[in-house]
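Please check this record.
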Amino acid sequence: MARTGRPKVEKPINRVVTVKFREEEYQLMFEYAENHNLSISQMIRLGIEMQLLNKPDQT
């Protein structure tokens, strides 16, 4: 019998990071994400990617 459910993805998102934000910061993120049809998680991932791609290593 074939298995049912979602198919496996090549690179699953399986790491959880918890961050605390001030109310004002959260509201800004929420509004930006909503205006750009993104989840807050997607928006944070994009921001991290932008920082890593555009900033030279400072070590």
Notes: Residues 13 and 41 are 11 Å apart (CA to CA).
